[in-house]
Amino acid sequence: MPTIHIELHKGRTLEQKTACARAVVNAVKEHLGAPPEATQVIFVDVEKPDWMMGAKLAEGGPAR
Amino acid sequence: MPTIHIELHKGRTLEQKTACARAVVNAVKEHLGAPPEATQVIFVDVEKPDWMMGAKLAEGGPAR
Amino acid sequence: MPTIHIELHKGRTLEQKTACARAVVNAVKEHLGAPPEATQVIFVDVEKPDWMMGAKLAEGGPAR
Amino acid sequence: MPTIHIELHKGRTLEQKTACARAVVNAVKEHLGAPPEATQVIFVDVEKPDWMMGAKLAEGGPAR
Amino acid sequence: MPTIHIELHKGRTLEQKTACARAVVNAVKEHLGAPPEATQVIFVDVEKPDWMMGAKLAEGGPAR
Amino acid sequence: MPTIHIELHKGRTLEQKTACARAVVNAVKEHLGAPPEATQVIFVDVEKPDWMMGAKLAEGGPAR
């Protein structure tokens, strides 16, 4: 039943994402007691320019 | 005012999505009493490899 | 595999939500071909004051 | 700490998004007291056909 | 049509949120060309303990 | 920069969530190469009745 959305900069490989998701599923199982059968991990790729940090914006420079 | 996000595997046609959204708008109208004018449906396509199921990950195989 | 989030004003009963979710699951099955076993519906209650409409804000009045 | 997601129709330029994000970061700073260093703005482009308006669907016409 | 979700620590007043949302609606209008009638702002209150910063966690201390 | 939302049934303790978040931050660091300073984990408690499983709904019984 846990549903986990991971927003990240585009560019990671499927191998990286799979290894990460496996560790997340294990963390959720160990620490929250949630069975892997009920756990989903969804990766949401974000293009770098679409992810803007307030600190950079406040300086008046580019947003990343 | 209801806003509905439907995350699904990429690959459905616009016709499928439109028919689905129409049924969802009707369901929201009939069962929640929400007027269609205030209802929005947003489809979020997810690439299959980005949607990982815990059960598959726990088996140590590929994540889908 | 479809995951559906329905944001709505707080106040609907469990009966209303259940009937709505059942219709949504059927819509997703019929029009997207997604099996109910893989479908989840999550209701997200939003307090009315937290949901602000741009039209009301632009008029300078209260936001709802 | 505020995280802002802006869903919008695809097609705006990076310049438009940057100017918008800067104004949003300032709004959050001025009205919520949140420091820009802790604020993030994420733009989520939505393809027009994926964003369906209930009013259009209820009329039986195209969904946009 | 822009839908804006603002996640923030619980505790702001309705007045603060309304002023912030009004500024956001204006920013979206000015910089993205989106009409206020089509813009919605949804505030999502997050309890402080539910929002965990990686830097704090990595230090092994409390997560906020 | 990764932002992780963990939706889960209400009821876990802060200790459980903190331990889980720490493991998630480490997983993201190890497998995605993302620095903890840029990682946030947000827990989203969902009331059990608000999380409906399609399989249960399709059987015509209660939704959980």
Task: Jot down its keywords.
homohexamer; 64 residues; alpha+beta; Macrophage Migration Inhibitory Factor; 2 helices; elongated
Q: What does it look like?
A:
Six copies of one chain form a homohexamer. Chain A is of the alpha+beta class and 64 residues long. Chain A has a single domain (3-58), classed as Macrophage Migration Inhibitory Factor (2-Layer Sandwich). Chain A contains two helices and three strands; from the N terminus they run βαββα. Chain A has a two-stranded parallel ribbon with strand order 1-2. In chain A, helix 1 (14-32) links the parallel strand 1 and strand 2 (40-46). The longest helix of chain A has 19 residues, at 14-32. The radius of gyration of chain A is 16 Å and the shape is elongated. Chains in contact: A-B, A-C, A-D, A-F, B-C, B-D, B-E, C-E, C-F, D-E, D-F, E-F. Chains A and C meet through loops of A and loops of C. Strand 2 of chain A pairs antiparallel with strand 3 (51-53) of chain B, so a sheet runs across the interface.
